[in-house]
User: What shape does this take?
Amino acid sequence: MKTKFKVEDGDIISKSFQTLQNNIINEFLKYEETDFHIDTWKRPEGGGGKTCVLSKGCTFDKVGVNFSDINGTSLPPAATSNRPELNGMKYRAMGVSVVTHPKNPFVPTVHLNVRFFMAFDENTEPLWWFGGGFDMTPFYPFLEDVVLWHESAQKICVLDKKNYYDDFKKQCDDYFYLKHRNEPRGVGGIFFDNLNNHKLADCHDFVIKVGECFYTTYSKILKKRKDLPYSEKHKSFQLFRRGRYVEFNLVYDRGTLFGLQSNGRTESILMSLPPSVNWIYNYPVEDGSEESVLYNDYLMAKDWLKEKN
Amino acid sequence: MKTKFKVEDGDIISKSFQTLQNNIINEFLKYEETDFHIDTWKRPEGGGGKTCVLSKGCTFDKVGVNFSDINGTSLPPAATSNRPELNGMKYRAMGVSVVTHPKNPFVPTVHLNVRFFMAFDENTEPLWWFGGGFDMTPFYPFLEDVVLWHESAQKICVLDKKNYYDDFKKQCDDYFYLKHRNEPRGVGGIFFDNLNNHKLADCHDFVIKVGECFYTTYSKILKKRKDLPYSEKHKSFQLFRRGRYVEFNLVYDRGTLFGLQSNGRTESILMSLPPSVNWIYNYPVEDGSEESVLYNDYLMAKDWLKEKN
Assistant: This one.
């Protein structure tokens, strides 16, 4: 059952997404002396956004916290590939996207996206759905952090008393996977799309909870790991592994492709790319090295909640 | 009119591609103290290749000179998107690919690809075609180098007394274009595909000439520019601009997509990616700066032969 609503009802969700953006920025600023650079922009075809990026901080090499709320006359393919009936409909699409590139290689990179879509034409009721999720990409993982990440996700993955964690966790593992490397992007989290099988207000509450869970959990990990001492070798491995992040975002990520196809603001979309990256041919990872732990124990789909002991 | 031939006739072309690979390596080694790292590999589904990469040299931060000769039972989509009749045919595909990432920002990055495809099934004559080209991506361009590049291309772009330079130059400008940046990858060169409208032997001679023109011309530019003094600012601009190269290769390049889709050897395919890259949000390029010259005078389709004075 779809809730009836008007296009302007998107305004309420837009406001709450902007609040989420501010909350995330304020949380990150607790660990920073540098300020965010803020660009408010309009899109010629309709809508706009606020791009916030912090570079060369003491905790983050780069972190982007984006909000956008755009509309257009024809949904681009990246949004409709699984739902051809939406092809060419008018739309409003809004979302908050976060990617962190921490300085310290013991702090994982994390990503959040929450989004809300409306599609409509003259003849039909507006359609709406939410999507989003968060996932973690460690360089030198701590089991404790990975378990915390997934436990926190499990706790908030509730809609009408039904827990969606297993479902959304699997979707995350399936989605954040680099086929050409036979490698997951990291240790996952949760991911969902086309969420509209509950009341609009409940789905809305849920995605906001997803956003809040993301930054409060990450904040705990930051606090614990950001001042750990690290060597040049650790940093070099981090720069190398960031290459995988670029490969995923440019080859597979539907959000990135949607942005580029919808004539989005390229600098905002590609703000997710790391500040510095190294591609090293056949990077040597020795058996039993600190670096091998990531490959041997973490880069695989696992039931992380069972790993806790 | 297609020339009749057998699948094994590909062996002759394969040999000449391997000779080209060696010639390119020997030319580059004139400027290096470091050796190429060489990996000879087999592909489980059929065929193999030789990947040669030099890293952290005195002239090149990284340069890859790849040869591969693979075969399979079903042509992947990246090879057949314009020719649906080839879909699912058996194939043999071979090629030489080169990408240079010079240390000195006054030396341009250049790229070469020459390739030969055969597609066949039980019922039809084998089909064959060549493709390839070369293009240049300068950071701090010299008009003299760009004109030399295009003049050299024009001279060798001859098949049966017909000059194809204008045609192949336009194909290059069209192909090496980053839509999401509204920006060409560089100053172009030549690019062609589905070349089979002349005798096989003549097409073969032509693509070998393309390969030879590539490295002999680049060698002249290397000699002139590789020892020019440069500053940290120059280097930083080079690292930033290399990001565009990554964006093109991962989002648009059909060769890369063909490789990844045909279950190719990922380390060899992505060897084209730069050793180090920086993504900087809204990189400031000031009016009248050395960096602005690239944007204002070079990143646009131009008749370079007319720019000579």
Remarks:
- The longest strand of chain A covers residues 60-72.
- The mean pLDDT of chain A is 93.
